[in-house]
Amino acid sequence: MARYTGPKTKISRIFGEPITGNGKWLTKNSNPPGMHGAARKRKSLGEYALQLREKQKAKYTYGLLEKQFHNTFNEAARRKGVTGEQLIKLLEARLDNTVYRLGIAPSRQAARQLVSHKHVTVNGEVVNIPSFSLKPGDVIGLKDKAAHNSSITSNIRPKNPKFNWLEFNEGEMRGTFIAYPERESVPENIKESLIVELYSK
């Protein structure tokens, strides 16, 4: 299963945002990586560099590698509507991301592991593909054995009420993907228009 396995702290320091974790260490060292850190003289980024940087941020945020991200973009471009917004909707509809948004896992990486280890069901059927794309009305849950596993249930937290495209019943350990989210409802600081410009070159 392909995934990024490099240093997560370094990635977040590049962007100055906690895109791969809770970011508690950013208060101690938020300098960009490199020998001279903040003292290094850095040129202002050009148009292409800004576009590439935004694509890299989206990839690391949602845990995709290049080929998978490119395929997701192509699918977004085929759909009706604004391509950038469709891209965000498809990324949010991934099963691993939805498990994280529901509060079942503390991070997208942990959600990916839950899915790949066959702890998660969709409409009552076990799905072990983190990139599985959900559709409105799909019901996400935990297998009976996983729902009684304290190491899993201890990490469950209340769903953020801002994620109004999802519903979660903590008593039944089941959530529903109600609809694709509107762009303004997704909190990630990603300028998707720059990604569209990059792929349109």
TrEMBL record:
Q: Which CDD domains match?
A: S4
User: Which UniProt keywords are given for this protein, alphabetically ordered?
Assistant: Ribonucleoprotein, Ribosomal protein, RNA-binding, rRNA-binding
Coiled coil, from the record = none
Q: Which Gene3D superfamilies does the record associate with it?
A: Ribosomal Protein S4 Delta 41, Chain A, domain 1, RNA-binding S4 domain
Instruction: Tell me the Gene Ontology biological-process terms attached to this UniProt entry.
Output: ribosomal small subunit biogenesis; translation
Which segments constitute the Small ribosomal subunit protein uS4 N-terminal domain? 3-92
Q: Does the keyword Nucleotidyltransferase apply?
A: no
Q: Where is the signal peptide?
A: none
Q: Name one GO cellular component term.
A: small ribosomal subunit
A GO MF annotation of the entry reads:
structural constituent of ribosome
List, for all copies, the residue spans of the domain called RNA-binding S4.
93-157
Q: Tell me how this protein assembles.
A: Part of the 30S ribosomal subunit. Contacts protein S5. The interaction surface between S4 and S5 is involved in control of translational fidelity.
**What PANTHER family would the database entry show?**
30S 40S RIBOSOMAL PROTEIN, SMALL RIBOSOMAL SUBUNIT PROTEIN US4M
Q: Which NCBIfam families match?
A: PRK05327.1, rpsD_bact
Q: What does this protein do?
A: One of the primary rRNA binding proteins, it binds directly to 16S rRNA where it nucleates assembly of the body of the 30S subunit.
Q: Which family does it belong to?
A: Belongs to the universal ribosomal protein uS4 family.
- Its protein name is Small ribosomal subunit protein uS4
Which organism does this record belong to?
A: Hanamia caeni
